[in-house]
Amino acid sequence: MVGMSVLRSAAAIAARLSPLKLGNNAPNLLTRAIPRTDKVAVRWGHGKKMFIVKPTDYYDRRFLRLLQYYILLTGIPVAVFVTCVNVFIGEAELVEIPEGHEPDHWEYYKHPITRWIARNLCDSPVKEYEKMMAAIQNEKEKADARLTQQEVRRQMKQRGDGPWYHVPTVDKGLIDYSPKASPDN
Amino acid sequence: MPTDHDKGAYPEPPRQTPVAEKQTALPNPAVILSKLFYYSVDLPVTTFRDVVDSIRSKNKLVYYHQKFRRVPDLTECQEGDYTCYYEAEMQWRRDYKVDQEIVKVVQERLRACQQREGHSYLQNCTKELQEFTEVTKNFQARYGDLGAYASARKCLMKQKERMAAQTA
Known about the structure:
The complex is a heterodimer of chains A (185) and B (168). With 185 residues, chain A is mainly α. Chain A has 5 helices and 1 strand, in the order αααβαα. With 168 residues, chain B is mainly α. Chain B is built from 5 helices and 1 strand, in the order H-E-H-H-H-H. Chain B has helices spanning 29-56, 82-117, 121-124, 126-143, 152-167; one strand spanning 62-63. Chain B is elongated, with a radius of gyration of 26 Å. Chain B starts with 28 loop residues before the first helix and ends with a helix. Classes of the chains: A mainly alpha (185), B mainly alpha (168). The interface between A and B is medium-sized, with 25 and 18 residues. Strand 1 (93-94) of chain A pairs parallel with strand 1 of chain B, so a sheet runs across the interface.
């Protein structure tokens, strides 16, 4: 109400000061929206837009984005595969070994993926055991051979005979006796 | 559905819930809550499990518990027979694992007994307690301070020390 009377007086003053200016006649002035500082419509919706000065986080967010991408690139197919295996094939049940049945080495594991790995990728534990035993046997034979060789050398050295205790020398026939023909030279 | 636990080893105490005689016409909130839980959690989970089981029942896999043959011990091996030593060592390692599992089972039984009895466990669980002390004492005597690099040979030496200490 007060604003309206002030507006009207402002319109009158503006019309009196510059009556010929475009848009300054009384009806125009009154209809024109004059900005008032004490009765501004304050809206708390978006707020004043601020430019916050901070160091760039582009590189950090890019790193995390790429990390997520590359992890999920193989992570999601693997997770889907393992879920499908667990739902459609499922884990094995523990049963007693029936009479006369010799289970294969992969039939001692529970999870189907472990069974597959044991069947196709790994050697059976029996084979691993035998491989180890063969390596041990090999090393044992080598050690025994070394010990016997050592003993033989010791014996030959002690007695002074035997084919291995001879120092290899030059052939007798290669010696040049020609300087001995003239001894007082 | 998977099988329940062994009732002989882990006995349940007799139920003491009194027979409820309804004296009011008001609904029982406990019954309402239990029905709510049943329809919102129990039923969906059970139906999901049944669905997955029906899919799985076409490819049923089985697995067995491996039984190992007994081989000559470390005391029955000739000196220098390293393959015999290896077999005895492997057998000792398997026996060590089995003994560890036995101790764990006995521990679990004592723990379950204590949980069941509450504050009166010292009085009611004497059988489990006695079993536990015996098993752990024997385990400690046999495998006690062998350490991380335990082997059949070290265990044999420990046994020799024990026997020497016993006779001396």
